[in-house]
Design brief:
This protein is of the alpha/beta class. Among the domains are: 158 residues, Rossmann fold (3-Layer(aba) Sandwich), CATH 3.40.50.980; 114 residues, Luciferase, domain 3 (Roll), CATH 2.30.38; 131 residues, ANL, C-terminal domain (GMP Synthetase, Chain A, domain 3). 34% of the residues lie in helices and 23% in strands. It contains 20 helices and 30 strands. The strands form six sheets. An eight-stranded mixed beta sheet has the order 2-1-11-10-12-13-14-15. The protein has a seven-stranded mixed beta sheet with strand order 7-6-5-3-4-8-9, sandwiched between helices. Strands 16, 17, 20, 21, 22 and 23 form a six-stranded antiparallel beta sheet that branches. Helix 18 links the parallel strand 27 and strand 28. The termini are far apart. 44% of the residues are buried. It catalyses: a very long-chain fatty acid + ATP + CoA = a very long-chain fatty acyl-CoA + AMP + diphosphate; tetracosanoate + ATP + CoA = tetracosanoyl-CoA + AMP + diphosphate; a long-chain fatty acid + ATP + CoA = a long-chain fatty acyl-CoA + AMP + diphosphate. GO terms for molecular function: long-chain fatty acid-CoA ligase activity; nucleotide binding. It is found in: Cell membrane. One of its GO terms (cellular component) is plasma membrane.
Length: 623
Amino acid sequence: MLSPVTWVTALLAGIFSVHIAQRLRFPYFWKDFFFLLKIIRYGIRLEIYKLTKRVVTVIDRFIQQAAEIPNKPFLIYEGVSYTYQDIEKRSNKVAQVFAKRGTVKKGDTVAMLMSNGPDFVSVWFGLSKLGCSVAFLNINIKSRSLLHCFNCCGAKVLIVGADLLDTLEDILPNLQEDNISIWAMKTETSYPGVNTLMDKIEEASDKPVAAELRAITSLKAPNLYIFTSGTTGLPKAAVITHLQSLKAAGGFWAYGGTADDVIYTPLPLYHSAASLVGIGGTIEMGATCVLKKKFSASQFWNDCRKYNVTIFQYIGELCRYLCNQPKGENDKQHKVHMGVGNGLRQDVWREFHRRFGKIRMCELYGSTEGNLCFMNHIGKIGSVGRSNFFYKIIFKYVLVKYDMVRDEPVKNQQGFCEPVKSGESGLLLSKISAQSPFFGYAGSKQLTEKKILRNVFAEGDAYFNTGDLMAEDEEGFIAFKDRVGDTFRWKGENVATTEVTEILGLVDFIQEANVYGVEVPGNEGKAGMAAIILRPEFSFDGKKMFDHAVRDLPTYARPLFIRIQESMEMTGTFKQQKFQLVASGFNPSTIEEPLYFLDYSQKCYVSLTTPVYQSIVEGKCKL
C-alpha cells in the first residue's frame, strides 16, 4: 500500500505534468478562458434585459452615471473640463428646445453634421432622450453624397455645426425643397430659412424630459445610423441598434479598463470607433474622455502628459504618424498603458513599442454594420484578433477560398464554398443567426441583400460577407490580408470605388474610369488610382481633373494617381478587371502608359516621372 507521502508526490507530479502539457499544447488557455468569462458576463447582462424587459441603453447608463458621479470630469476638450452633470444638463437643454417646439417626436430620425466637441455629445444625447434615432454624417462628404444620405435614413431635421454651415451653401436650397428643417449651432445666421440653435439652448430649461420618451421595449430597435462606404458607390446608412451600441461600449472594460482611466479620443465621432467604443466605453466605466477636434501628431504626447491619459484610441495610420515625429528625450515619459484600435502594421507596431514603451496595443476587428468582432486580447503583434475553441462555439465564422481574378468566392462542383486550410488567406464570412444578427442598411433591402451570401455550405444558410481577406494560424490568431471587391481603405476611411468612378465620369474628357487602390510604401491602406479611357478627340486636362476631384470628392477619396489606357480589361462576367491593375502599381519605369500624380502644390495632376515616383516611395513627398 502506498504511503500518503507517495500519494501526494504522485498527485503533485501529475498536476505539474498537466500544467506543462497545457503550457506547451495550449499556451493561451487560461488567458482565453478568463477573457471569455468577462465577455459572457457582459452578455448575460444584455440577456437579462431581454428577459425582464428592463432595457437599459447607453443613454440610460449615462444618466445613471450622471446621478452617481455628477462632478467627475466626463469630457475634457481644448483644456476645459465638462463633468457628467454638465453634459447631462446641456443635453437636457437640447431635448427641451425640440420638445417645446414639437420639431421632432419619438421615433423620428435626426441627422447631425458636426465636428468633434462637447456639443456633438450634448446634441446626440439630447435627441436620444426624446426617443429619436440619430444619423451621424461624415463631415467630409460632398453635396451629392450628402443629399443621398437624407434619402437613406429618412431624416427630416438636420443639425449642423457652426463651422460647417458654409459648406452647405450650395445645397441648402435642395435640402429646403425636400422640407428638411435645418438648425445651425449658432446664435445668428444670414442664411434664410436656417434656424439658430445656440441661443435657444442657452434659454432652455435644464430639467430632464419625461423618461418614457427614451424608453424602448427591444434592444434591436434602431439607435443610430452611421454611414459607411461600401461596394455600391454612395454612402450607406448602417443601422446601429441599442444592442450593438451596448456591445461596443464594453470594449475598454473587456480589455481591463476601469473608472480610473483617462481615454484619449482623437478620432471623428461620426465613426463608430470614437462614438460607440470611445464615448460609450467611457460611460460604461464611468471614466474620463479627452476629446480632440482633430488628431495632431505634434500635440499627442504633450496632451497625454498634460491630462494623465492612460488609454488612447487609434487607427494604424495614427500610430505611423506618431512614429514619424522627431524623437524626443521624453518619448517614454507618460502614463499611457493601453491603445485600442485597428489597422496597426507589424513594422509600425514594433517601432511604436521601441519609441514609446511597451504599451499594450489591443487590436479590434469589426465593421460598423457587421455581426462579428475579433479582439486581440493576447497582444500578439500583427494579429487583428484571437479565436479559440470557446469563441467558435459562440460565434460561427469561416474563411472561404476566394478567386482574386474573378473577384468572387470559389465554388465546388456542388455549388458551395470551400473553407481554406489553416494559415491560408480566405474571405471572412460570419453566419447570420439569432445570436449574431445582421441589421443591414436603412432605406434599401437591396443594399442589405448584397452583403449577404446565401447557400454557402447548405441550402438556405446565410452569411454576412465582410469583404475582407483574412488568415488564421494554427494557434487561432487572425491576421488581416486585404480587402476585396470595390472598397479599399485610405487615411482611415473606406473608399467606395464605384462612387469615385461615378463622380469621375462627370468629367467631359473621361469616357470610362476604373478606380482601385494601390499600395504605397510606408503608408497604411491603399491610395486611390484611376485607370481612364479618354473620349475621342479629347486630351487629358490635369487642371480640370484636379478642380473636379477637389470640388466633388473628400480628401481621402481623391485618386492620387491617374493611368491613361486605350482599352479597359473586363472579367468574364463583364466587370472591370482590377486585379492586374492593382498588382502593377504606379511605377513609371514598368508601366508604359501615361501616368499622372495629384500635386496639391501645383493644383494640378502632373506627369508622374521617375524622380516624382522615387520621392513618393521614399516618403519625401507628402500624400
